[in-house]
Amino acid sequence: MIPVSRILIPAALVAGLLLITSTAGTIQTGNVGIKTTLGILSKDEIEPGVYFKLPLISTVQEFSAKDIVIDISDLTPKAKDNLSLRDMDVSIYYRANPGAIAELSAKYASQSARHPDGYFMPAYELIWRIARNACYEEIARLDSLLIHTQRDQLGTAIARKIQEELDRTDKGVFSISRVVIRSVQTDPSIEQSIQQAVANQKKLEAMQVQTEIAKKEADIKVTEARGISEANRIIAGSLTREYLQHEANLALLKFAEKGNTNTVVVPAGMGVTPLINTGK
Could you report the per-residue pLDDT of 19-46, keeping only the tens digit for each? Predict the structure, then answer.
């Protein structure tokens, strides 16, 4: 028969160990702890590290004070032209002010969500609903044909809308760091219109390039014509009567030097006596 003392001692050790572990715990870096004692929520957050609590009557829940991502998928909002998107996937990144999480855990107790790692994400359900509504409202401001070209602007607009909604009731408590549009799939008929619009845009760009080339070529021709016109003007201004007489004299001299010239044609109106070699 086993002595009672040999049974009680290990049991006491186990009970003591359980008592110690029930009075202490740890909070991970980037998170805070919220203590509840006999149903009364403490207003002071527990900082990261080791904490102690009263056994059996106190509990501590760990809440994230880091960036939390909310993935919203399979949205089908209507655009400004009343055409619905086939699918839209968005990721929203937010965080809560560490010094306000105790109040948040009381105010939005039923709207916090538990992460698979065990900690809680403050007001997760609340922000999920606000973000979803913001996506629908901002899509309704854009034409369906333009959404695929304005994803960055759309993400910024959604983030701003969510922040505005949160600040109305909890100013300075939540911060929306960014919104990422992961996917936007339009209706097949819209896709065809988008492709046609892109093709037309490329065609227009090509025509604009051709127009610019034609303009440049025309400018070159105009410049050349002006140059020729200016050259002719300068030449015409230099052809005085005396200069023309001088040139005619030189021509006659060349005829005379050949020695076998019998006829010389003199332009009408020139006051010059032709030199005629009649030969010997």
Answer: 555 678 899 999 999 999 988 989 999 9
Tokens of 40: 């009364």
CA distance readout (Å), 252 to 246, 261, 262, 269, 271? 10, 10, 12, 16, 13
Tell me, letter by letter, the H, E, C secondary structure of the chain: CCCHHHHHHHHHHHHHHHHHHHCEEEECCCEEEEEEECCEECCCCECCEEEECCCCCEEEEEEECCCEEEEEEEECCECCCCCECCEEEEEEEEEECHHHHHHHHHHCHHHCEECCCCCEECCHHHHHHHHHHHHHHHHCCCCCCCHHHCHHHHHHHHHHHHHHHHHHHCCCCEEEEEEEEEEEECCHHHHHHHHHHHHHHHHHHHHHHHHHHHHHHHHHHHHHHHHHHHHHHHHHHHCCHHHHHHHHHHHHHHHHHHCCCCCCCCCCCCCCCCCCCCCC
At 182, list the tokens. Answer: 């992961």
Angle subtended at Cα 146 by Cα 144 and Cα 147, rounded to the nearest 5 degrees: 70
Residue 14's Cα: distance from chain center in Å?
A: 60
What is the distance between the alpha carbons of residues 68 and 241, in angstroms, rounded to a whole number? Answer: 96
CA dist., res. 201 & res. 198, Å (int): 5
Distance between CA 49 and CA 46 in Å, rounded? 9
CA distance 194 to 188: 10
Give the model confidence (pLDDT) of 201-257 as tens digits. 767 777 787 788 878 887 887 787 787 777 777 766 666 666 666 676 776 677 667
Closest Cα partner for 121 from 61, 60, 75? 61
